[in-house]
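pasting for ref
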Amino acid sequence: MCKRNWSISMSDRISRLNLVIREWINYFCLSDMKSKMEKIDEHLRRMLRVVIWKLWKKPKKRTWGGRKLGVSDDLAQRASVCGNRYQWMVTRTCIARAISKKSLS
């Protein structure tokens, strides 16, 4: 569901993820799932951020995306040229704060 090379729209991807998550919750509803689901939620959001960052392939598009999400021009430009370290970019930089839970919902 979170493969970066799976070319479907983000809304379709999120709706399919929601379907799978609901099925998991219904299947494991009798067990203690809160802490496990929080970890899964954190991981899925990180993977969705990677997908978004991967969609913006060129530094110009990454700068545009960062500005669109509210990152300052200087930070957006610096983040856009950091290369292809996707996991690092979406967890340790301004992009992690810009692509928040609210924007992924």
